[in-house]
Amino acid sequence: MSKELKELTQEQVQQHNKDGDLWVIIDAKVYDLSRFADLHPGGRAVLVDSEVAGQDATEAFYGLHRHEVLERPQYARLQVGVVRGEKSVITGRLIGGLSKVPYGEPTYLTEGFHSPYYTENHRVFQKAVRKFFDEVVYPDAQARELDGKRPSQEVFDKMAELNLHAMRLGPGKHLKGLSLFNGLVKPEEFDYFHELIITQELIRTGSRGYADGLLGGKVIGLPPILNFGSPELKAKVVPEVFSAKKFICLAISEAHAGSDVLGMKTTAVKSEDGKYWIINGEKKWITNGHFADYFTTGCKTEGGLTVILIPRQEGVTTKPIKSLLLSDCRNSFCHLRQRPSSSREIRSGPRTVGIFVILSNFNHERWVMICASTRAQRMIMEECLKWISQRKAFGKPLSSQAVVRSQSGADERAREALQGWLENVTYQMCNMQACWPDRLLEDVAALSMRKILRETAYRSLEDVGSPDGDGPLVEHYHRTIGFDSILGGAEDVLGDLGVRQAMRMMPKNARL
Ligand code: HEM
């Protein structure tokens, strides 16, 4: 039963202004801190200060804390009353709603702004997806960030009910006949903007490791089967993965072969009777590897590369890799020492073209990662804008300092430019044939340059960045953004790839 709150005047609160009898007003709510003062993480002295004890301490409080401190049950119960004739106006995290903070949302979600890219259906879809991620996924993400476990099966199951696992693979035949988000989008109308919306809403859960744990392995491990697997293989594996009964990952990288895919050393040779593959090798940095049931594995075979789907079985062992991502859901070692087994080849023609099976989804993978990191940057900017407005130094908000504004300006320009370019690329993807032209590949490779994001991370940390207090999200972003610089190919390799692709398109007769 909730406690009854008294209506109190400012004068009544002012009577409680000393050690042992200590009340404060924060945002028109009255808190009794008499017994809490000794437990206060910021110390007792700051609370008995004459400008705080018995006073309206709203500004002092928000200059040092996030709003959510007051929402924690152990602190919310310190409230004893409300100030007569005043109303609380401060809001914290909005569940399912749109942020009013400038640049807190992309322009298509900003009041008074327009976008040529998003239809009414995209907007309705975004609303529903945000509500789902805020209500169902966010609490799990926060809890797993603390206990270091992977996302709960309950979340996987709820996503499966809406067919979100299938939608995360983008538009295509795999959606045929499925009810998408309870019929909100027709399978044939689902496009890359719907997929962008899912990825950008997902990343708002604020935990980078968790986001990958939410079946990032499937996003890259299943497409080779969808695109090149035999009908029997698809009929067995795809429904298992879409219903989250089984998990899949992509096992390509090795300790000595990251961006250099052809440098892989894992081998697959046929057994004497020619019926089975015998596979040997070690894979590393395999997203979701340690809980995967299937491994879409790149192997060296006689005369080329072959992609083979290995089910978890005797001879396959996996071990998580500890990294800066706290949730236990990202990368792992996979040791493959197989006797003749039931592994199945995924073919796109002759065995030598296994590399095309591997590469075929790389650009989509890079685009997904750009969607995610661009949105993560927006979230961080929102944190910073809030903080530089509420945090005071030299008697004024941080935002009154020109140098702080200049940093924010640089981040705004970078982020809005990225989102604008990303939406343009997404529009081209919606309207081009399955085989993207070089120019689009160049765009995706160049967009993958995440140097900008790392600079934002560094600047944000200067504004707000203590994991225990004001800036856990910023600290998390700063700690984990480095991963985004190597996924789908190291950023320098991709940057170079973009320029090489552009050079290939140079007209032979172009001269100054
Ligand atoms: C309901 C009232 C309050 C509660 C529940 C509360 C709670 C907390 C908590 C949990 C922290 C640890 C850091 C964090 O999680 O943000 C903290 C730190 C702190 N608090 Fe409070 N606090 C309250 C009021 C105040 C007030 C009125 C002041 C006055 C100036 C104050 C000054 C500080 C300081 C200086 C720190 C240390 C900040 C830092 O290390 O950066 N607190 N408080």
UniProtKB/TrEMBL annotation:
Gene Ontology, cellular component aspect: cytoplasm
Top-level lineage group: Eukaryota
Keyword Oxidoreductase appears in the UniProt entry: yes
Cofactor(s) needed: FAD
Protein name: Peroxisomal acyl-CoA-dehydrogenase
Family designation: Belongs to the acyl-CoA dehydrogenase family.
MF (Gene Ontology): acyl-CoA dehydrogenase activity; flavin adenine dinucleotide binding
SUPFAM superfamilies: Acyl-CoA dehydrogenase C-terminal domain-like (SSF47203), Acyl-CoA dehydrogenase NM domain-like (SSF56645), Cytochrome b5-like heme/steroid binding domain (SSF55856)
Keywords: FAD, Flavoprotein, Oxidoreductase
Cytochrome b5 heme-binding domain boundaries: 5-84
GO biological-process terms attached to the record: fatty acid beta-oxidation using acyl-CoA dehydrogenase
